[in-house]
Amino acid sequence: MKNDRGSAATGVAEPETVEPETATPAERGAAYRDPVRTALAAAHQRWQAEVASSAAERPFWKRDFSTLSGAEIPHLAGALDSSADPLRDIGAPGEFPYTRGIHPSGYRGRLWTMRQFAGFGTAADTNQRFRYLLDHGQTGLSVAFDLPTLYGYDSDHSMSLGEVGKCGVAIDTLADMEALFAGIPLGGVSTSMTINSTAPILFAMYLAVAEQQGVDVETQVTGTLQNDILKEYIAQKEYIFPPRPSMRLVTDQFLFATRKVPRWNTISISGYHIREAGSTALQELAFTLRDGIEYVEYGIAAGLDVDQFAPRLSFFFNSHSDFFEEIAKFRAARRLWATVMKERFGARDPRSLMLRFHTQTAGVSLTAQQPINNVVRTALQALAAVLGGTQSLHTNAMDETLALPTEETARIALRTQQIIAHESGVISSIDPLGGSYLVEEMTEQMVAGSLDYFRRIDEYGGMVEAIEEGFPQREIVDSAYRYQQAVERGDKLTVGVNCFQQDDDPPVETLYVSDEVAVHQIEALERKRGVRDSGAVGRTLDALRRGAASDDNTMPLLIDCVKAYCSVGEISDALRDVFGTWEEAPVF
Amino acid sequence: MAARFSRILIAKPGLDGHDRGAKVVARALRDAGFEVIYSGLRQTSEQIAAAAVQEDVGAVGLSILSGAHNSLLPEVIRLLREQDAADILVFAGGIIPNRDIPGLKSAGVDEIFLPGTSTQTIVEYLKARLGSDHVAGIAQAANQD
What we know:
heterodimer; A: alpha/beta; 5-stranded parallel sheet; 50% helix; B: alpha/beta; 6 helices; 5 strands; 46% helix
C-alpha cells in the first residue's frame, strides 16, 4: 500500500528519507541504524513470538478481525508502522494539509452544528417539528423532502400514489415552502436541504421565501443545498435527467450563487448514500472526493476561477460502526482534499483547501430488532464523527429503521449529541487521536487506497464517464453482497440480529404518516392552480424551456417560475422536455 | 423445480430508490440456483404485473422502503389476478410497520421479510413455497376451474 503513494498526478510528495520497505517492523529490525528503532523492532518481534506461542494453546476466539469494511488492520500498531510524516502529512490544525482539522481552535472555538434531518407530511406538520427541534436546542435546520418532490412529480401525479409526505415533506408550489418556514426567520438560521435532481427549483423557492420575509439574500441567507447529482447515479438513484445536463444545472447554481448568494454552500458532496448503498469506508471516501474533483473540473470549464467557488463546496459523510476506521476516513478526507485542491487545481485561497463536512450516523446500521440498542450504536458513531472533526452532525433516532422518528426519539438523538458535547470531555483537545499509531496507519491506508481509486476513475476519463460505464455502481453492489455473505457466515456480528437475539422484543410506537396527507396536499395544489395567474405560469415555463435549450443560466428563470407558483412537477416537466430522462441498466 | 418455479422477478415498485436489499436478495437467489429477473427502479404496478406474466415467473419479490406499500403492493396483486396470474406467489421485503402486515397479507402478500432477514431464509422460503406442494396446489385449483 505505501508504495502506491506519491504519484505526480495527485502531488503527494515522496518521503525524503527512505526506510526499508519490507513487510513488517520485525523483519525490518536489523536494517535500522537508529538504536531506538532497532530496539522497538526487537520489542515488536518479542511480542509477535509471544502471541504466536499463546495462540498455539488458545486460538483467537474468532477468525475475522478485519474492519466492518473488510480491511485488515494490525493486531498491534507501533511507532514503526506508520509512514506518515509528522510535519508533511499530519501537521497542525488550521494548516495544510489540515489532517488534524480546519480550525486552529477546534471545538473550543465553536461546537459542531447539531442539525437533525426532519420532514414528513405537509409543510405545516414539518414546520411544527422544526420549531420543536429549535426549541430544544438544535442549531440548524435540515429539510427532508418526500419522494415526489425529489423526483419532480406533483402530489397528484400517478407515480406519487402512496408516496406523498411519507419519506419527507411534500412540496408542490411556493405556497408549501412559505408554510414550511412560517414563523422561522430565514436570516437567523442556516438551512440544509437534501434535494438533488430538483435542487435548483427548491433553492429558487427558498430564496423567494427569504425575499418575502424581507431577508437580504446576499448577506443573510446561509445554508447548504445537497445538489450532488453524481452520487444519485452512483447510489441514491433519485436522478431525473441524464448526467451531462444534470451537471449543467449544478454549474448554473455555482455561477449564480457565487455572485448572488455568496454565503450559501452550493453543494454537499455526499458519501453518506454511497455508504448506505453498501460501499466500504474506503469506497465512500474515494468516490465522494472523486465526485468533488469532477465538480471542480466542471466549474472551471464553466468559466469560474477555482478560488471563486471552491470555498463553498462542502461534504457529507457517513459515520458507521467501525470506530477507528471512521475516524481515519475523516482525517484522510481533509488531507486528500487539501492536497488535490492545491496540486491538481492550483487553488491558493486556504478556504478552497479546507474540507468542511456534515456527518450522519449510519442509518443502515440500525436494527429493527431490539431498537433501543440503536441509541448506543448512534452514540458511538456520533463520537467517531466528533473525534474525526465534523462541522455538523445528524444523529439517527432509534426507530428510523422502522419509520420516521417520533418527537421523543428525535429528541433522544439530539440529546446524544449534547451529551457528547457537554459531558464527555472529548471536545477539549483537538484531534485527540492524532499520533495514535493505529489511527495514523489507518489514515495512511485510506489516503493510499483513495489515490488508487482516483487513478482508476481518471482512466475512465472522469467520474461522469465512470458512472456511464457503471464502474462505481458495480463496486458498491459487490461490496454490499460481500458484506451480506460475511454476516451470514457469522464473520460480522450484529447484536440482536445474528447474535444475542431475543424473542420477547417489545414493539415500539412509531410515527405513522396517514394517506390523509395526500388528500390534503392534492386539494391545496388544486386550489392554488385555480387562483394563480395562469398566463404567468405559461410565460415563465416557456422562458425556462428556451433558457434550458440555450446556454443561459437557468437559476433566474427558475426563480421566475416559482414566484408564478408553477409547481415542482410542471417545472420538472419543462426541463424533461429539453433534457430528456435517464434510466440505468438494471444490473445486480 | 419446474422451469417457471425457479424463475423469480425482483421488483422495485414506486419511487423508492433504495436498491441495496433488492440487489443483494437478487444475487443471493441467483447463487442459490434461481433464475432471477431484476426490474430496475421506479416500476409502476402495471409494469411489474406485466413483466411477471410475460416472464412467466413463479414468484414476484417486491422491495419497498418508502412507506407506499399499502398503496402499491395490493395493486400489483389485483393486476395479477386480473390477468389470470393469481398463482404467481407475491412476497415483499423492506421497511414495513408491523401494523400494516395483517392488511397486506389479507390482500394476498404471501410473506413479508423485515430488516435483518438472512438471504438464506428467503431462499428456503421460496424453495418450500415453489416446491412440489405449490405445484400441486395450482394443479388442484386448475382442476376446480
